[in-house]
Design a protein that fits this description.
Layout (H helix, E strand, L loop, with lengths): L2 H15 L6 H13 L24 E4 L8 H4 L7 H13 L19 E4 L13 H18 L5 E5 L1 H13 L16 E3 L4 E5 L4 H6 L4 H14 L20
Parallel strand pairs: 1-2, 1-3, 3-5
Antiparallel strand pairs: 4-5
Helix pairs in contact: 1-5, 4-8, 5-6
Length: about 250
């Protein structure tokens, strides 16, 4: 598949995703949030639709999250944009040299990613940030197709959190990669060879993890740097050079 066809394919995929209404509970919730809004954003027009992937069509590194935040991606229309989790993630991407700016405000902020694309296994914001397994499985074909389109250039993948890990592994299988049996267990710093790409695990950039110190900026930069190097990307010398071990459980 040449670059032009791949870019066109991802563009069409992203457009199709934004019109999906396959999960009634998620459709009702995303549109209700867009109507009622948060007081701080009362003057804004919410996106209120499924949020497509974000990043270049020829990315060699893919980040897989969980689902758009109700007042983040569901408001702005872009992955990890306009919420606290995004503040942490984009700062780390900038520090490592994978983003053009350290913050993500809205679709017109000029932010670009360098060699990395961001997506999620569920494209609609779910109540309490908890998709059902049925909703996860209904959304899986979008992720499978995105992986197929990225396959010519994809060299490494970071999955943020256990939910994303469990959702991504079957998608990799359907997209043609060989996932080891038994399935690899999620963990921060987990590293799995899927034959042609390397899969990395990282704690999710949720406020619960970042506020409690379970995931520190140095830990996040460490995973990003290691995965970016595995993907053949140039990285900034700033920040951690190796994976920092997760804190011990108390």
């Amino acid at each position: 598949m040449n670059d032009g066809l791949r870019e066109d394919g991802l563009g069409r995929l992203d457009e199709r995703i934004t019109h999906c209404r396959a999960c009634p509970r998620l459709v009702d919730w995303r549109e209700e949030v867009a109507r009622t809004k948060r007081a701080a954003f009362a003057d804004e027009t919410y996106w209120g639709r499924p949020v497509p992937g974000f990043g270049p069509h020829d990315a060699s590194l893919l980040l897989i999250g969980l689902a758009p935040a109700a007042h983040g991606g569901n408001r702005t229309g872009r992955m990890f944009t306009g919420d606290r989790s995004g503040e942490v993630l984009y700062q780390a991407l900038y520090d490592v040299g994978l983003a053009s700016r350290p913050d993500a405000i809205g679709l017109d902020d000029g932010l670009t990613l360098h060699g990395v694309r961001i997506t999620s296994p569920v494209h609609c914001t779910p109540p309490e940030n908890k998709p059902t397994t049925g909703e996860r499985d209904t959304c899986r074909p979008w992720l499978v197709r995105e992986l197929e389109l990225l396959r010519p250039t994809l060299r490494a993948v970071i999955v943020l959190g256990g939910f994303g890990w469990q959702a991504a592994l079957p998608a990799f299988t359907e997209a043609g990669w060989t996932v080891p049996r038994p399935r690899p267990v999620f963990g921060h710093g987990a590293r799995v060879d899927l034959g042609g790409i390397t899969l990395f695990g990282c704690y999710h950039v949720s406020q619960r993890n970042t506020f409690t110190g379970r995931l520190t900026p140095n830990m996040l930069r460490g995973v990003l740097r290691t995965a970016a190097i595995a993907a053949g990307l140039d990285v900034s010398p700033f920040g951690a050079t190796d994976l920092e071990p997760p804190p011990r459980a108390s």
